[in-house]
């Protein structure tokens, strides 16, 4: 074809009409703008006249003047020590509400209480209003008091030390501070000085604050502890991952306040812990509001960080805030829970990460997880839609619930993982744990969903040829098998299952389920006869890359012979229970003599599963079958969580504050194939900021050693931990403990 030559003066195509983007205005709707930003500052006049002054402010040299304002913000000074905020890496004063803090004001002459009138003024947001709690004057005498109280602690020469107590319901956030002196002509104020800004947080140490937690060890663990342990794996083979919450690291507090700004949350609501946690539950995920984290369960993490690679919350929150709110990629449930935990502890709300093993995600809105079998007892995956997560992580936070009846305060479930919508947004909670335990799921927020996560029944249906579903077995103990959280002030685990439910089969449990039914939960009422043949899949420890045998134990409890036609399926699954690829399918015929027990072994070869494994390295085995003589169905399920190779983490040097030390991370590739694009991350709360290194290839049998220098920033016991991550190998972990001296 001949080359085409463009004409010298082509006729331009008609340009599309572009309408200018209209500016949205609130004019005509409200007199002032919406006060929903802690970053924006309202203008505060240095002189506020009482009368019309046509010639400007008069000379005020003979009246009281302020030379200096010292908010006593150093970590070793009285405020931060008394308010338990000395660990925050910040250049500002950070205090807690419902507790007195001190400031020192230096005047131009001695203060005369009978003559001089002044106030310490606190302003938050762009539209300060006394009625909204965004403008608070605090006076030095009891005769003039506002919603915050003030008093003169000491007056010496020209310096006045004043004590100020914020109210127990005040807005949580960053306040600007001014000193206003009253003159006959008007109020004269200090100039705007960012050095006097203060942050006010929730106060779990004060009985007046709704987040009050009357247990010192629990407060140390659930507010002050930066080092977390998150449980995962299987209920009978629990694994741990350490996490740096980093709630005291530089910039994290501002990042948490930015989350509420981005949610357009009114400042006047930010003193209500119920509203704060509910808004944050939505904002920690990005599903409908461009929140902090993008969820991804696909296994393809090309455009972000794999969820298994994160070691802490600091990097995530700072990336989100520094990018003006761009969501961070990627997260799964434990990442959502860990970052949410940082948010809560940073603002002073007692919180902990909780793991529920075999957590139901019920698609039908009832208390039944439906598993469909065909007429011969074989699993029908096409018709089985409900999923049981091997584990699911959420948060609990501690608060009073004045909106609920007495007894339903305390620990509340909040969950940022986007599973289902609540009031039109992907969020969950706060839902009272006590209400869930007692079946009182009529109370807000989202209690029915959480109740189903720990109480659903697994119902096996046999689908007949005519399409009718027949209930053949109900397992009432599989879901919510165990609920774990970190123990208080040590690295052990704490089983809190009894806080969510009464013992299986107890009279109390039956009453709770009946109560839940009164509020709309649907249960399976049929009770099919139990089979006289039992099948059980044994637990076993397996390392990735090994061949192994799965052992099934068949037991005939009858006095007659039994023959079982069995289907054994082994499927690689995501930890959410979603299948990825089948690796084993066997159909043995098992013959059992009366009262006989027999084992059946199934070989699983590494070459059958290695190229199908997803990041959690879980294989779900399910055995179903039909007893020839009775037509009864037998079932058993087991998740085998394969163990990963470990990293070796070592620290050397003098463990003292500001002394140079070294951390070394060692790893050997144990496989017969190369690992490519390998990410290594290491950090240690309070001692080692996040570090990152990438290796393009680690050949089979090859070892690597990565060494980094660091200087501990503060004394105390902590951990240094590292993670290795690549497409072929996820969740490789190592740690070492470290005690730093002053």
TrEMBL record:
Its EC number is 2.3.2.13. Keywords: Acyltransferase, Calcium, Metal-binding, Transferase. PANTHER family: COAGULATION FACTOR XIII A CHAIN, PROTEIN-GLUTAMINE GAMMA-GLUTAMYLTRANSFERASE. Residues 1-17 have a biased composition (Low complexity). Transmembrane segments: none annotated. Residues 20-29 have a biased composition (Basic residues). The gene is f13a1b. The keyword Iron-sulfur does not apply. GO terms for molecular function: metal ion binding; protein-glutamine gamma-glutamyltransferase activity. Residues 1-44 are annotated as: Disordered. It catalyses: L-glutaminyl-[protein] + L-lysyl-[protein] = [protein]-L-lysyl-N(6)-5-L-glutamyl-[protein] + NH4(+). This is protein-glutamine gamma-glutamyltransferase.
């Amino acid at each position: 074809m001949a080359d085409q030559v463009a004409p010298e003066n082509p006729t331009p195509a008609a340009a599309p009409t572009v309408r200018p983007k209209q500016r949205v205005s609130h004019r005509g709707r409200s007199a002032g703008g919406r006060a929903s930003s802690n970053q924006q500052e309202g203008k505060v006049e240095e002189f506020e006249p009482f009368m019309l002054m046509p010639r400007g402010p008069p000379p005020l040299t003979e009246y009281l003047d302020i030379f200096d304002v010292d908010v006593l913000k150093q970590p070793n000074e009285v405020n931060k020590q008394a308010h338990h905020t000395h660990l925050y890496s910040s250049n500002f004063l950070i205090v807690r509400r419902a507790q007195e803090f001190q400031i020192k004001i230096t005047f131009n002459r001695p203060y005369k209480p009978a003559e001089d009138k002044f106030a310490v003024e606190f302003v938050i947001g762009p539209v300060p209003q006394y009625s909204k709690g965004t403008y608070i004057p605090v006076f030095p005498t009891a005769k003039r008091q506002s919603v915050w109280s003030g008093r003169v602690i000491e007056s010496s020469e020209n310096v006045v030390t004043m004590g100020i107590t914020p109210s127990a319901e005040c807005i949580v956030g960053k306040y600007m501070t001014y000193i206003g002196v009253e003159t006959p002509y008007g109020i004269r104020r200090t100039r705007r000085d960012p050095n006097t800004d203060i942050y006010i947080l929730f106060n779990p140490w004060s009985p007046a604050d709704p987040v009050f937690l009357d247990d010192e060890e629990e407060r140390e663990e659930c507010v002050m502890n930066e080092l977390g342990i998150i449980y995962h794996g299987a209920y009978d083979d629990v694994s741990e991952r350490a996490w740096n919450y980093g709630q005291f690291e530089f910039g994290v507090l501002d990042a948490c306040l930015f989350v509420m700004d981005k949610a357009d949350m009114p400042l006047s609501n930010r003193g209500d812990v119920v509203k704060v946690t509910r808004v944050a539950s939505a904002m920690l995920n990005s599903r409908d509001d461009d929140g902090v984290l993008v969820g991804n369960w696909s296994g393809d993490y090309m455009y972000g960080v794999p969820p298994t690679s994160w070691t802490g919350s600091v990097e995530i929150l700072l990336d989100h805030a520094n990018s003006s709110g761009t969501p961070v990629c990627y997260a799964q449930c434990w990442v959502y829970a860990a970052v949410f935990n940082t948010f809560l502890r940073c603002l002073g709300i007692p919180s902990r990460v909780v793991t529920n093993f075999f957590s139901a995600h019920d698609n039908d809105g009832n208390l039944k997880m439906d598993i469909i079998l065909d007429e011969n007892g074989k699993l029908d995956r096409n018709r089985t839609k409900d999923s049981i997560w091997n584990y699911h992580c959420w948060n609990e936070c501690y608060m009073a619930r004045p909106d609920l009846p007495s007894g339903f305060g305390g620990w509340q479930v909040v969950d940022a993982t986007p599973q289902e919508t609540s009031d039109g947004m992907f969020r969950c909670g706060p839902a009272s744990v006590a209400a869930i335990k007692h079946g009182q799921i009529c109370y807000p927020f989202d209690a029915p969903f959480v109740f189903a996560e720990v109480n659903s029944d697994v119902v096996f249906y046999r689908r007949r040829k005519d399409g009718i579903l027949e209930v053949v077995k109900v397992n009432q103990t599989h879901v919510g098998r165990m609920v774990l959280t970190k123990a208080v002030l040590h690295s052990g685990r704490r089983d809190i299952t009894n806080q969510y439910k009464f013992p299986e089969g107890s009279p109390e449990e039956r009453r709770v389920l009946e109560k839940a039914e009164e509020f709309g939960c649907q249960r399976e009422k049929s009770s099919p006869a139990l089979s006289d043949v039992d099948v059980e899949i044994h637990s076993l420890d397996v390392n990735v890359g090994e061949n192994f045998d799965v052992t099934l134990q068949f037991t005939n409890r009858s006095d007659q012979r039994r023959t079982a036609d069995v289907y054994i399926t082994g499927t690689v699954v995501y930890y959410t229970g979603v299948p990825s690829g089948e690796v084993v399918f066997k159909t043995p015929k098992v013959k059992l003599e009366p009262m006989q027990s027999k084992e059946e072994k199934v070989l699983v070869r590494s070459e059958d599963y290695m190229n199908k494994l997803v990041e959690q390295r879980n294989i779900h085995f399910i055995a179903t079958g039909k007893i020839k003589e009775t037509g009864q169905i037998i079932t058993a399920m087991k998740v085998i969580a394969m163990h990963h190779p470990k990293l070796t983490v070592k620290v050397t040097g003098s463990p003292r504050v500001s002394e140079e030390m070294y951390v070394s991370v060692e790893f050997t590739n144990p496989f017969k194939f190369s690992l490519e694009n390998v990410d290594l991350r290491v950090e240690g709360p309070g001692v080692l900021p996040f570090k990152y290194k990438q290796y393009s290839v680690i050949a089979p049998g090859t070892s690597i050693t990565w060494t980094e220098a660091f200087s501990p920033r503060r004394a105390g016991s902590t951990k240094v931990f590292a993670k290795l991550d690549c497409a072929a190998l996820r969740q490789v972990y190592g740690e070492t403990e470290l005690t730093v001296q002053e």
